[in-house]
Write a structure and sequence with these properties.
Layout: E1 6-13, E2 16-24, E3 32-36, E4 41-46, H1 52-61, H2 63-73, E5 84-87, E6 90-96, E7 105-107, E8 113-116, H3 123-150, E9 157-160, E10 167-169, E11 175-178, H4 186-198, H5 207-215, H6 220-230, H7 243-246
Parallel strand pairs: 2-4, 6-8, 9-11
Antiparallel strand pairs: 1-2, 3-4, 5-6, 7-8, 10-11
Length: 247
């Protein structure tokens, strides 16, 4: 991206200086404002270079909302009994079953619940490990499906916990995903899987790339809007850093 399509600066948010990154995305239909909960950065996207000043003004005008987002980022949401976890887009109550280790169980009645056994001190880690395995299962199935439809070779995938992207595809065809996608609705996970599979054909975001994504029956705009609205909050789940610890 040309350097004049990206502007970096600091803006005042509730009495503190916060880094703002304003960039141009000519596919954007509107101004888009995001807060990165881990880096503490504000990202604003404009549909053209001429609209960058408007985008920066838009971010400044939303300073109260940004302050709330930055504060919420310090509030980790560890997986613990009585708390809630997102699984495939649905909230599930976390229930500790017993001290005996047992596979995590999913119950739908009388309400969505995740039943976790083992020592309470290890519940957060055990549930994260289980969710990583569920993410691998769902993403492997999605990758197999889209690779078959695209007529490309199925590649192995890796499941990680990146802080800046939901999926990636290297020039050698290695595909990696965030385990946190298991918390998103299935159609959102499918979008990321399809996106990375199309990169096996087009290693760019050209019009050809987006036409191919659309041909797979994927609503990219709706998925990107979902991430704009909800993506940042997913990084707090499974964390153990409390506000008082971060102060």
């Amino acid at each position: 991206m040309p350097s004049d399509d990206v502007k970096r600066m600091e803006i005042d948010i509730d009495g503190r200086a916060a880094p703002l990154i304003a960039r141009v995305n000519r596919r954007a239909k509107r101004l888009i404002l995001k807060v990165d909960p881990t880096a503490g950065e504000i990202h604003v996207t404009a549909p053209s270079k001429r609209a960058l000043p408007e985008a920066i003004a838009f971010a400044r005008a939303r300073s109260a909302w940004i302050a709330t987002q930055l504060d919420d980022a310090l509030l980790a949401r560890p997986f613990e009994p009585g708390a809630y976890a997102l699984l495939r887009g649905r909230r599930h109550l976390i229930v500790h079953a017993s001290e005996t280790r047992r596979p995590v169980q999913v119950e739908d009645a009388p309400m969505p619940r995740l039943i976790v056994g083992g020592a309470p001190a290890h519940l957060n880690r055990r549930l994260i490990d289980w969710m990583k395995r569920e993410a691998r299962k769902d993403l492997s199935a999605a990758v197999s499906r889209y690779c078959k439809e695209l007529g490309v070779q199925r590649r192995s995938i890796s499941i990680r916990d990146p802080r800046s992207r939901w999926g990636s595809c290297s020039s050698e065809g290695a595909i990696s995903f965030s385990w946190r996608l298991i918390m998103t609705p299935p159609e959102i996970l499918d979008y990321v899987a399809a996106h990375e599979c199309v990169h096996l054909i087009h290693m760019d975001h050209s019009p050809r790339f987006w036409r191919q994504v659309k041909a797979l029956g994927i609503d990219a705009r709706a998925a990107e809007d979902w991430f704009d609205d909800h993506g940042a909050t997913l990084f707090a789940y499974g964390g153990t850093k409390r506000r008082e610890e971060a102060a």
